[in-house]
Specification:
The chain is about 20% helix and about 40% strand.
C-alpha cells in the first residue's frame, strides 16, 4: 500500500473515527484504525469497539492499493503533530508503516487486517429516514445527559427515538430525572429504537464537527442503525428490550405553575450551589410564594439566599432539588423564559416551554429537612 494525502484532512478523519476506539478493550486489534487505500483515489479509515463503528473516506493520491491496521493512538498523534503539508504513507514488505513528510520520517508497526471486525452492510432494513442535521443534533443535546450511566440499569442507559402520530421524539431517564424532546415529522408508520447515550453523544460530536449542512440519513434494521453524513458512516448497535413507558410518568395536571426568566434562574442556582456542594444531594430549596421565588441553601460553611421575581398561578409551595439536575435541564434549552410546574413537595417538577411541547424535563425532588 502506498499513498499520499493532505495532513489536515487525514488528521480530521482520524479524530472522527477514533471516537469508536475503546480505551478499555483487551482485544488488541480494536485499539487500531484500519486504513484501506483504493484504486479510485480514496482512503477509507475505520474503527470499531463492536458497539459503534465509524468509517470516514478522504481523497488521496493512491499509487498502490492495500490495507493495514495501525495503533489508533500513536498514528493519530503522529499525524496531528506533522506540519500542514502532503503526507506520504507506505506499507513495507515487513508490515511496518512508513510515514514521511519533507522534514519528518516515522516507521511504526502495522497489524494484519484479517482480524479486524467486518463492519459490513446492514441487512434486513426496516426503515430509511432523513433528518435535518441541526434538529437531530439539538434533540440529542437536550436529552442524552438524562440517561443512566450505570450499565447495570439495562436499557435506560440509552435514548429512545420514536416516530409516532406525526411526531419524532427522543426520551431519556435515569430514575431521578427525565428528558423528552419532540419535533413534528410525518412518516407512514411507527418506528422506535434505543441507542446508548454514550454512543449517541459521540455521534453528535461528529455531527457538530461536520461543516456540511446536508441532511443525515438513518437506516434502521433489527439490531443496528446506520447514520450517514457527508463521507462518514456510523454503524451503532441498538439496545434490546422494552423502554419504560415514559408518557405514563408525566403528571396529567398541576397545582402550581411559575413562569420565570431562565438565565436569571440559572445564575441564582449557580450561586446557591456554592453552598449546596458542601451538603448532601447538592440540596437547594425553592420557596414559591406570591410573585417571588426564594432559593436557599445551607451547609456547615454558611447559608445563601436568592430572590427572583416570577409569575405564579396556583398554590404556594416549598420544595427541594438536587441543584445539578435543575441546572442541567435549564442549560439544555435556549428559551428566554420557561415554565416550571409542580404538585407537592414530594412529587416531580416538570420544566416546559411557554408554548408547545418541544421539550419536557421531569425532576424528582429531594426531601428537605426541617430547619
Amino acid at each position: 500500500m502506498k499513498f499520499s494525502c493532505n495532513q489536515q484532512a487525514l488528521s480530521k478523519a482520524l479524530n472522527t473515527v477514533s471516537k469508536a476506539v475503546s480505551s478499555r478493550t483487551t482485544i488488541n486489534i480494536l485499539k487500531g484504525v484500519l486504513i484501506k487505500a483504493s484504486a479510485d483515489g480514496k482512503i477509507k479509515l475505520s474503527a470499531s469497539d463492536l458497539d459503534i463503528s465509524i468509517e470516514k473516506t478522504i481523497d488521496a493520491n493512491v499509487e498502490e492499493e492495500g490495507l493495514i491496521v495501525v495503533s489508533a493512538k500513536l498514528f493519530t498523534e503522529i499525524i496531528r503533530k506533522l506540519p500542514n503539508d502532503e503526507v506520504y504513507i507506505e506499507v513495507k514488505e515487513n508490515g511496518n508503516v512508513n510515514i514521511k513528510t519533507l522534514t519528518s520520517d516515522f516507521d511504526i508497526y502495522g497489524q494484519s487486517a484479517e482480524e479486524f471486525p467486518n463492519i459490513g452492510e446492514v441487512k434486513d432494513v426496516k426503515a430509511q429516514l432523513s433528518f435535518d442535521k441541526k434538529m437531530f443534533s439539538d434533540m440529542v443535546r437536550k436529552t442524552f445527559f438524562c440517561a443512566s450511566i450505570d450499565e447495570s440499569k439495562g436499557i435506560i442507559v440509552g435514548v429512545l427515538m420514536e416516530l409516532k402520530d406525526g411526531s419524532f421524539s427522543m426520551a431519556a431517564l435515569d430514575g431521578f430525572r427525565m428528558a423528552v424532546a419532540r419535533e413534528t415529522m410525518q412518516y407512514e408508520k411507527e418506528e422506535k429504537i434505543v441507542i446508548s447515550a454514550r454512543n449517541l453523544n459521540e455521534i453528535n460530536k461528529i455531527l457538530t464537527d461536520s461543516e456540511s449542512d446536508e441532511d443525515i440519513a438513518v437506516i434502521i434494521s433489527d439490531k443496528k442503525a446506520v447514520i450517514l453524513l457527508e463521507k462518514t458512516k456510523i454503524i451503532v448497535r441498538l439496545l434490546e428490550g422494552d423502554f419504560i413507558k415514559y408518557r405514563d410518568i408525566l403528571p396529567k395536571e398541576y397545582k402550581t405553575d411559575i413562569i420565570i426568566e431562565r438565565k436569571i434562574l440559572i445564575d441564582a442556582i449557580e450561586r446557591a450551589s456554592l453552598m449546596a456542594k458542601e451538603g448532601k444531594n447538592k440540596l437547594i430549596r425553592f420557596n414559591i410564594k406570591e410573585n417571588l421565588l426564594n432559593i436557599t441553601s445551607n451547609s456547615e460553611e454558611g447559608r445563601v439566599k436568592e430572590d427572583i421575581i416570577m409569575e405564579k398561578s396556583g398554590d404556594d409551595l416549598e420544595i427541594g432539588f438536587n441543584s445539578t439536575y435543575v441546572m442541567d435541564a435549564l442549560k439544555a434549552v435556549e428559551d428566554e423564559q420557561i415554565k416550571m410546574r409542580f404538585n407537592t413537595a414530594t412529587t416531580p417538577c416538570v420544566v416546559q416551554p411557554l408554548e408547545g411541547e418541544r421539550y419536557e424535563y421531569l425532576i424528582l425532588p429531594v426531601r428537605i429537612p426541617s430547619m
